[in-house]
Each structure stands twice: as structure tokens, then as C-alpha cells.
Amino acid sequence: MNTRVNNETSGPSSMRLVLTLAIAGLVSGIAIIGIYESTLPTITANKARELREAVFKVLPGVGQMQALVYRDDELVVVESQGKDEPVIYGGYDESGEFVGYAIPAAGPGFQDTIAILYGYIPGDKLVVGMEVLESRETPGLGDKIYKDLEFVAEFSALSVEPEIVSVKKGTGSNPNEVDSITGATISSKAIVRIINEAHTAWATKLPAPGSEPAMQVAETASTEAGQ
Amino acid sequence: MKKNESYEEFIKGVWRDNPVFAQVLGMCPMLAVTNSAINAVAMGMATFFVLVGSSFLVSSFRNWIPKQVRISCFIIIIATFVTIADYTLLALVPKVHKELGAFIPLIVANCLILGRQEAFASRYPTRLAVMDALGMAAGFLLALFSLGAVREILGDGALFGVKLFSENFEPWVIMILPPGGFLTLGVILLFFNWIKFKKDEFLEDVAEAERSGN
After folding, report:
1. Which of A10, A13, A17 should one mutate to test binding to chain B, selecting the residue with the greatest count of B CBs within 10 A?
2. Of A194, A188, A193, A111, which Cα lies nearest the Cα of A152?
3. What pLDDT is recorded for position B37?
4. Mean pLDDT computed over B87-106
């Protein structure tokens, strides 16, 4: 009993303990804010560049892009999309002619959600490219959905009519059939299902071929030209 | 003499008291992110930065931190360094950051780091604490790299993404999967302990020979 009392009295006051932790927390907070603020521009630039590269990859022949959202029964061009608002990207060639849509989609894979971006030409009703943005599929097996170039090439001219189906490797002959990867059937089927679901969701929202929103010149550029 | 002392603190972490092979600490990142050499090295570097940084701070402030709140202070310091490492990796090497995913924030919970603060950095002068942290971190990096290299070579036929074998090489996929981590770690630990055993035997033989010689 005596020793306990002694220990308590000889130890530092509670004030000192509270102060130590408060100062440590404060310094740590400032350091974290500093690193967050200094890396944020690079991180956002990286993400934007990644997305741009992916859009150009899934839509061959595209030179410019803009974000589109579905508002009030039509597709409108947006500078920045609202939260939880599904966005797709319109791809245009250098002269501003519409080429196709790059549509982000996600769904459950073998391990975790797979997020992809696929290129879609509404006039021909064709999927012309697919890029996996995010996945945690099994290394060596499921990750072939983006490492196996043969499988990725399956999506370079794929008809969505009536819907995409995955078949056993080597048996695909129709334009709407995808050869599954041996040893990664679930992951390959997941990609097909994700595209089908996204296509069903967007099919009714996309305007008739020929009446797509035109490429808008960035506003800052136009005001500068006006001055 | 002083130089020898810091050298001793450094080398003990790299080899004799290697955090993974001898102390068997930090197993979670050890098994989870060593499926390729580059991931293992990135993880090792991040841990290196966090361990050396926090050892330096903890040791510098060891006389100001009351011992009742020392663990909380260590955690605050470690977590700050981990956040810095997290954002730096995200900005500089987004691809690697994507692969390592949740395991970077989890460096906070790596018992190797907190263990070094409590056992060493909070009791010794800054110079020794930094040497100790450098040694331990280098040992951890070495261990991660050896595991990652073995697993990538066997499981993918490559090292740092460079193919080593001809087309005929059939990758041993299980080595990149979780069981491969346990298998490789088991074999490496076996090897490490065998060396230790042989060394002890040798020293005993020498001692005996000396005794009989006298």
C-alpha cells in the first residue's frame, strides 16, 4: 500500500501526461496535414492520367475525352461529377467527331470487386476494348484477366447483341462469345457479367447513335480566346 | 571503441538477431506482400523509413516522455511516419501502392517497430538507437527480399518482373499464393536454425579440443 502511494506521488502529474499526449497529437496532426497537402496534387494528377490512358486504350482512335452524366433523361457534359453519380466518358477523335463511350463498371470477382473500363461503339453495338482498373484476383490465375493478352484481345470486337456469353476456351466462334481462361473461369465470367450488367443499365440511357453530346472546348480555353 | 559499439548494434539486427529469421516478428507483412520481389522491397523500404524515423524521435525525446504514456506516444510517432510513407508511396509509385494496399497502414501494427521502441530506442542514446533501427530494418528488408525473390522466381519464373527462364518453364503458381509464403518461410527458418545448430556444435567441439589439449 505504502509503495503504491509513493509511486503515485513520485510520478508526473496528470496534467503533464495530458499535455505530453496533446503536444504529440498536435505535432503529428500538423505533419499529416503537411504531407497530405503536398502530395495531393501529384496523386490527383496521377489518377487523372491513369483514367485518360485507360480511356484512350479501350477506344482506339480517340484523341480527346469528356465526362458525361445522365441527368434529366439525357446525357450532359460535366466538369466534375457529383457524389455517387455514375459517370461515363465520351471519346472523340482529334477533329471532335464522336467515336464511342468508355464506360466504367464494377462487380464481384473471385476475391473482391473488379473495376473495369470498357469501350463501346453504339453505332455498331460493339465492345472495342476492356481494361481492368482494379482487382485483387489470385496472382498467377485470376490476374490473367488483364495479364493474358489473348483474353484481353477477346474484347476488341465483341458484339453485345443479344448479350455477351463466356464459353470454354477454344470454342468461341460467334461475335458475342468470349473464350474463358483455363483456370480462371470465375474471373473471366465475372468480367463478362460486369459488362453485360453495365450495358443493360446504360443501353436505355444512351442517346440514339448520331445524336451524342458534342465535344465541348474547355471553358477556360474559350474565355481566354474571347479576351 | 565507440565505432565498434554502433557497428555491433547494426550487425546484430541484420544477422544474429534478424527480426524475421531469429525473432520471428512482423510475420503479417512478411507473408502477405512477398509474392513478388518488388512488393517485398517496397514494403521493406517503407518499414525501414518508419522504424528508423520513429527510433530517432523516440530516443531523442526519451527523457521527456513520461513512462505512463510512453506506448501511446510511440504509437502516435509511428502512425505519423506510416501516414507519411503511405502518401509518399501513393504519389511516387501508385502501382506499387495499389499492390501493397491495406498493408501499408498496417505497418503501425508491426510488432517489430513497437518492439524496438520499447526494448531499445526508449533506453539508449540516439546514436545507438538509430544504429539499432538501421540494423533491424536492414535485416527485415533482407528477409522480405529473400522471401519475395524465392517466391517470384519459383512462382512466376521472374525476378523484378524480368523473365529468367525459357518458355518451357512452368510457373509454380502455389509459390505466389499464401501457402507458398508459409512453405518458403518454413524452409528458410529451417536453414537458419540449422546454421545456428552447426555453429554451436562447432564451438563446442573447439572448446572440447582445447580442454583435452590442455
Report:
1. A17
2. A188
3. 86
4. 84
A11, A21, A139 member nearest B73 (Cβ) = A21
d(CA B8, CA B67): 28
Residues 6+ apart with CB under 8 A from B137: B13, B44, B47, B48, B51, B52
Domain locations in chain B as residue ranges? 2-213
CA dihedral B47→B48→B54→B60, nearest 10 degrees, is 170
Which three cell numbers mark A61? 482512335
Whether residue B48 contacts residue B141, with contact meaning beta carbons closer than 8 Å, is answered with yes
> In DSSP terms, which residues pair with A189 in a beta bridge?
none
Q: Residue A221: pLDDT above 50?
A: no
- What pLDDT does residue B84 have? 92
Of A12, A42, A141, the CB nearest to B91: A42
CB contact at 8 A, A158 and A127:
yes
Q: Greater confidence, A8 or A144?
A: A144
ipTM above 0.90, yes or no: no
**Cα–Cα distance between A107 and A163 in angstroms, integer?**
17
- Which distant-in-sequence residues (6+ apart) come within 8 Å of B189 by Cβ? B21, B24
Query: B194 Cβ partners below 8 Å, 6+ apart?
Result: none
Distance from CA of A35 to the nearest CA of B (A): 6
β-pair type (A165-167, A177-179): parallel
Cis peptide before B178 (omega within 30 of 0): no
Domain residue ranges of chain A, discontinuous segments joined by +:
2-44, 59-214
Residue of A138, A127, A129, A131 whose CA lies nearest to A115: A131
How distant, in Å, are the alpha carbons of A31, A45, B77 from that of A27?
6, 28, 9
Distance separating alpha carbons of residues A56 and A61, to the nearest angstrom: 8
Length of chain A: 227
Q: What is the DSSP letter of B14?
A: I
The neighbour count for residue A97, using CB atoms within 10 Å, is 12
Q: Does A113 touch chain B (CB under 8 A)?
A: no
Which H/E stretch holds residue A132?
A: strand A126-134
Phi and psi (nearest 5°) for B116? -65, -35
Q: Which of A21, A37, A50, A181 should we substitute to test contact with B (largest number of B Cβ atoms within 10 Å)? A: A21
Q: Are A88 and A71 in contact (CB under 8 A)?
A: no
Contact B69 A35 (CB under 8 A): no
Q: Provide the whole-model pTM.
A: 0.75
